[in-house]
Amino acid sequence: MPRKNPIAQREIEISTRLRKFRQSIGLSRVRFAQNAGVDSSLLSRIEHLRAPLKYQTFRALNAKYYITPTWLATGSGFAKHSIPFDDAVFADAIDSALPFSEIYSTVLSGTVSSVSYEFSHEIKMCQNFVNSLQNFIKSESPEKIAMESPKNVSLLLNLVSTLSKLRSDLETIVNQWQGVMDRQNEKATAAKRKRDGSKPAREKAG
Description:
Elements: H1 9-24, H2 29-35, H3 40-47, H4 55-65, H5 69-74, H6 100-108, H7 116-139, H8 142-148, H9 150-197, H10 201-205
Helix pairs in contact: 2-3, 7-9
């Protein structure tokens, strides 16, 4: 028998991606939920399309499994990050009882998708150059490098110059990212205040 109030297509897609993510890491529904401190019956309702994924549930799952919010919301990009997504900067704007899809659209979208990949790419470049610099320094003594390896000295200078430029680029990206987050945070906070202001007096009192 069809559900009286079926969930929206977007919620179906999010729930389906969440289920596929769980299956991809080889965990049962119960173990997947328990590891993150989530009620397995709630996860079952989400995966069986009987309830939308709430943000508070995403937050718990992300803290354990590092699920990328952009991938979960849209299907684009990587499903998993190397660290959990930190939403602390949006704390005042996020109502965790709302669906994940709504929070993504009103708070996170545009912040975690437009800048993060560029930022990650710059970080990887920095890491590669730092590793090269460390290997170079360990390979020979400074005296030997200066006397016998002028090419290595040139490489060192190029690495230092490149790292300086990358640092400047990273500062620019961080400033842009902070600006985007501030605007998104202000927008979401205003929307939250508007929702709170429209709630019936009895609901506010409760």
